[in-house]
Amino acid sequence: MRPRPLAGPRPGARAPRDLRRYVGSPPQILLLACSFALAAYAGVRLLAGDWFGVAVWFVGAALLHDLVLLPLYAALDRAVTGALGRAGRRERVLYVRVPAALSGLLLLVWFPLISGQVADHYAAATGLTGVDFLARWLLITAVLFGGSAALLMLRSVRARRAAGAARR
């Protein structure tokens, strides 16, 4: 009896099933096509005006992210992971990573308003004042970290109870 090969198509395998594994189901394909159409529409609308300015901004943002921000938050993540890992709490790193990532994303998106740099433009465009964005961002950040700490405490209490019940 010959051993079966480790890789390659199985004898008698149906192509549509194998294709579905790589491509996805019809609703997934439809959703992907719709998202590409929406992205193409947004790109055409965005580039209709100042296409050179948009291209410069996009390349600059990519370079800033890849050359400055990525090493910065990778080093910060490594420091937090190392500090919590030495203390024997490596699995608890997510309770710091997730709220920090969400808070950082909010800061990145709303930075012009949080810093107050475009408050006049914001007021002119929307008719609303651009004040209190810093306080709101700080409050959201505190709620994210507080919720993460509460979830960590809850899971720790449950783990202790489960370990106590297992000992009995």
What do you see in this structure?
With 168 residues, the chain is mostly helical. The chain has 3 domains: 33 residues; 39 residues; 80 residues. The chain is 78% helix and 0% strand. The chain contains 6 helices and no strands. Helix 4 packs antiparallel against helix 6. The mean pLDDT is 83.
Q: If helices are DSSP runs of H or I spanning 4 or more residues, what is the number of helices? A: 6
- Which descriptor suits the 3D outline? extended
Provide the structure class: mainly alpha
Count of beta strands: 0
Name the average pLDDT: 83
Q: What is Rg?
A: 25 Å
Q: How would a crystallographer describe the biggest sheet?
A: none
Percent range for helical residues? over 70%
List low-pLDDT spans.
Answer: none
H and E string: HHHHHH
- Approximate strand percentage: under 5%
Span between termini: 52 Å
Domain count: the total is 3
Summarize the structure.
The protein has 168 residues and is mainly α. It is built from six helices and no strands.
Write a concise keyword list for the protein shown above.
168 residues; mainly alpha; 78% helix
SSE layout and pairings?
Elements (H helix, E strand, L loop, with lengths): L14 H9 L2 H22 L3 H36 L7 H21 L4 H8 L6 H35 L1
